[in-house]
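Task: complex structure prediction.
Instruction: return structure tokens for all chains below.
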Amino acid sequence: MRENLNKGRNLNKGRNMTVNGLDVEALKDTCDLLTKEPDLGKAQFRIGNRWKTGGNNKVSVKGFFAAGEEQAHKSSLDFEADEPPALLGTDAGANPVEYLLTALSSCMTTSIVYHAAARGFHIESLESEFEGDLDIRGFLNLSEKVPKGYQQIRAVFKVNTDATEEEIAQLYQFSPVYSMVSASVPIEVKVIKV
Amino acid sequence: MRENLNKGRNLNKGRNMTVNGLDVEALKDTCDLLTKEPDLGKAQFRIGNRWKTGGNNKVSVKGFFAAGEEQAHKSSLDFEADEPPALLGTDAGANPVEYLLTALSSCMTTSIVYHAAARGFHIESLESEFEGDLDIRGFLNLSEKVPKGYQQIRAVFKVNTDATEEEIAQLYQFSPVYSMVSASVPIEVKVIKV
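Output:
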């Protein structure tokens, strides 16, 4: 979206400020532009999946649509998925519910960082641990009472910041993946200043 | 779970049959064991996340609990997450919502393959394409009317199998990630025999 934003950038010339590694001027310009031209908010993300054998399959991330145009990643992004031997796989990669925690943790982290930058909160470090409880009987359809997905997810964020724990805890709520997963799975989140 | 299952395996000696790359005898034994000892279904998966800068953070998949004991992956599994330049990142990895499609596609694929094997359906090949529509104004909190997560996800599976399209379409419903995501996002799925 930078190219589109260069038009409006002149207004803020010389005010190129970085917070949390983000150009907050560009972030503000993006918000202003999307308020004026809401259609530029439309994005589409895509992957392809090819099954190999048993629990092993391979994902290739494709090009995407954002900021009004088709875009490409600068390098190929491929991911092996597999189950461990305990679940009859060969452990050739992370399993699908580990990729779900990957998506969730990266999305909540990015949401905290971007929204902190927009508010002028400085983040020096941010680490988190996620764990999810799942009963395999759900997937195997052995009991209708057992949910197929995670029964609960717990996350602990350790953050070095000038914001309060409460202020940081407001920010992961903007996360798209948090929004999708928390609709069906209880997610318990702790934010601890370090 | 193989070790636990070896006890019961004698009953089926010589019947070591592989379908879709899976030892269906072990799969059946797993189901029998979990019916007798439901506590063995309890699993826990874990990741750690370390923020680097801006939209870039790194996930490390940790050890997990399954089949009644702590387990380790055979190799380290690390994933870079980042946003593309259009979203103010440096494109150092897939973005969080692309990891969500990774999780979803790998989970639906594995569910089809495992449940097909349990039913004696042979799968020769299985490929899929996923795309998800998302309005970035949700994440940026520019409109309360715009969902933060995907508004819709579409998936097409192309499968070479002796089952019917309808039979295959029953099987992804057992997927834990499908179960979690479809609770809040409409997922349109097509199964096409090739």
